[in-house]
Amino acid sequence: MSSLLTGPALRAQCRRRAFHTTFFRSQKHPSPPQKPSTRAYSQFSRDRAAVGVFTPKSAALFVAVGVGLFFYFRHEKAKLLEQREQERAAKQYGRPKVGGPFTLATPTGEPFTEKDLLGKWSLVYFGFTNCPDICPAELDKMTEVMNVVEKKHGSIFQPVFISVDPARDIPSRIGQYLTDFHKSFIGLVGSYESTKAVCKAYRVYFSTPPNADPNGDYLVDHSIFVYLMDPEGQFIEAFGQAVDTPEVISKIHDAVAEWTKEHGKKT
User: Fold this and answer.
1) For the chain, how many structural domains are there in total?
2) Residue 20 counted as domain residue
3) Is 14 annotated as a binding residue?
């Protein structure tokens, strides 16, 4: 019959016979199962080993180390902040070179030097008696401060007024001028050179010319600060015009308390 088939029909019949032969042979002799490749097994082993290291015990250790590092760095940060705060306080309450030797005269003409301020706290202000408004306002503030600190600490403070206008502020004039303020004020004045020297020691600027006319009508430009000095003559702090009375009083109380803690006494 196959001899009667030719062309396409013969080729189709051959393909069908080949398919049946292959199919039945596969059913009688199935192929053995393929084993996983060595490469795949190695990758599986590595993945399993990697997961196996992170056990509950190792996880607990990891957490403990993390918590320890957290608290360590937080402690170090707190120490750093404290150090910075101490540095800031040192800058704020430090003692730069302000003050020094000087020789001036009291309203009665007696000589007065920086040594006469030792043993008491002093509040030192530089101004002039012809000042129209700023100096009187600052001296009024000093008077208010003195009234409060005397009630708390006694007579351990000495307010001082130093003239930056030696041509017009003769000693007797300063004495009369200060009667409008606190009773314990002491006024000091000197020659132009001695005034220049004490202003340099306290880092005070003033514009009085050396040849000023004692009868002239002029104003003096000068620094506006009240200098707080301790009983040893060391600078503590300078209070500017913008610092109000309560703040000055508070800082003075703090300074006296710190001094007392360190020296065992107020003066």
Assistant:
1) 1
2) no
3) no
